[in-house]
Write a structure and sequence with these properties.
The chain is an alpha/beta fold and 435 residues long. It is 38% helix and 17% strand. The strands form 3 sheets. A 7-stranded parallel sheet has the order 5-4-1-6-7-8-13, sandwiched between helices. The chain starts with 12 loop residues before the first strand and ends in a 10-residue tail after the last helix. The relative contact order is 0.16.
Length: 435
């Protein structure tokens, strides 16, 4: 490893997961199994990927951990918050993502992970009715209670660092309000005034994490850290933030396939995406206000890859529709159908159909691991504010819309940004161009 100014990953890393459902328990079980040598963390970039460093005679392909000091899986301690009181073992069994034989070897460790009371507001997720919730009079009290949880976990487990990641349900859509969300002072006042319309519970988690010196990752499409007030807090606390919405199935396909249409200069008439899924995520998204949050996130991908202003002949007025349907029999095994209407030479129409039968939590778990390890790395490297290099893992990456900045959604450009950041933090030259 080259000499860099990144602090080493000494001591233990606490990963605090908001939500103890299918995604969270699949993630935690997989990490615990992997460090016993009983499973492999397949799908994890930090555990498997090799990145080129140097050029010409100096060219080498190294694992991420050989370039930068990432935390070891053996040094991770887990905690979680959830509205349901079941421990992580019970929740993993209930989720039915993993087989019992893949959970039982780490049963003792999972049973010790008991969810702390969640900072919850039923108006933000009407389909959930758990009673393991904090009794807080105001949003500010929520923040204070969460900060106390973080401090207690850190002290009890003697941790040197903490990362907080959201793997809970999608909240109802909260439009950005300049009066409340554009300055830290205004957001803090709204929390003290208990402005429940503009301050989502997820904002309380993010505020608490950043204030306690922990990077925060938003894994759902919620309005949380993608507001100027939170950017201000991240600058003030010198902490990294990332979000939004884990890029697992259909949007992963879209961000990788849309560039094929673009680089071949084919036209697009329409792209219809529909999903069927069961699990708690599907149940929550069956509520129109919650689906609206997800829809905005999923719709943003295409428009920044196939752009009418760049190629008006090819991408003017295409029709883009996204649907999610709750279908309990599928449980965690969701299905994404994409119908893509394209046109080619002399305007002749063609069609592409993609049917992705995927497992939501199996695709999400490695993303949680990578996002936590890389956010912890970024904090030790002195990087703070929005970590654009983590866009690779997210459906609608954060960007400064107040200055007209566009998110980068092209998967290959995102991968280049990710590799360049790892090279830089490892003391190598960030030598790949992003066209």
């Amino acid at each position: 490893m080259k000499q860099t100014n990144v602090k080493p990953a000494d001591g233990k890393l606490g990963i605090m997961v908001v939500g103890c459902g299918a995604v969270a328990t699949t993630f935690m079980t997989g990490v615990l199994m992997a460090r016993k040598g009983l499973a492999k963390p397949i799908g994890s970039m930090t555990q498997y990927d090799k990145v080129r460093v140097g050029k010409g005679a100096d060219k080498k392909y190294l694992h991420v951990g050989e370039i930068v000091p990432i935390a070891n899986l053996n040094d991770i301690e887990f905690a979680t918050w959830d509205v349901y009181p079941q421990n992580a073992y019970q929740a993993a069994m209930y989720a039915e993502v993993l087989k019992e034989k893949d959970i039982n070897p780490v049963r003792d460790e999972l049973e010790k992970i008991v969810p702390m009371k969640a900072a919850f507001d039923k108006n933000y997720a009407k389909r959930l009715d758990g009673d393991n919730v904090k009794d807080c009079a105001t949003r500010w009290e929520m923040v204070e209670a969460l900060r106390e949880d973080i401090r207690r976990f850190k002290a009890e487990k003697q941790l040197s660092r903490i990362v907080v990641i959201w793997a809970a349900s999608t909240e109802i859509y909260v439009p950005v309000d300049e009066k409340v969300h554009y300055s830290l002072a205004a957001l803090e006042q709204a929390m003290r005034d208990d402005d429940r319309e503009h301050v989502a519970p997820s904002m309380c988690y993010a505020y608490a994490a950043l204030s306690e010196g922990a990077p925060f990752i938003m894994g759902a499409p919620n309005t949380t850290v993608d507001i100027p007030a939170m950017w201000e807090l991240a600058e003030k606390t010198k902490m990294p933030i990332a979000g939004k919405d884990f890029k697992t199935g259909q949007t992963l396909v879209k961000s990788g396939f849309a560039p094929i249409i673009g680089v071949r200069n084919l036209g697009l008439s329409g792209w219809f995406s529909t999903n069927i899924l069961g699990n708690r995520d599907g149940l929550v998204l069956d509520e129109p206000d919650n689906f609206r949050t997800k829809e905005v996130s999923k719709l943003s991908t295409l428009e920044t890859i196939l752009k009418a202003d760049v190629q008006p002949d090819l991408y003017t007025d295409y029709y883009h529709k996204v649907r999610i349907n709750y279908y309990p029999p599928r449980n965690d095994n969701k299905e994404g159908w994409d119908n893509i209407d394209i046109f080619g030479w002399m305007g002749y129409p063609m069609q592409i159909k993609i049917n992705f039968l995927c497992r939501d939590s199996i695709l999400a778990a490695p993303l949680l691991l990578d996002l936590c390890l890389l956010s912890d790395l970024a904090a030790r490297a002195g990087r703070y504010g929005t970590q654009r290099f983590l866009s690779f893992f997210l459906k609608s990456p954060m960007h400064d819309y107040t200055k007209g900045e566009e998110a980068v959604n092209n998967l290959y450009q995102q991968y280049t940004m990710l590799k360049n950041a790892i090279r830089e933090m490892g003391g190598y030259e960030a030598d790949e161009e992003i066209d």
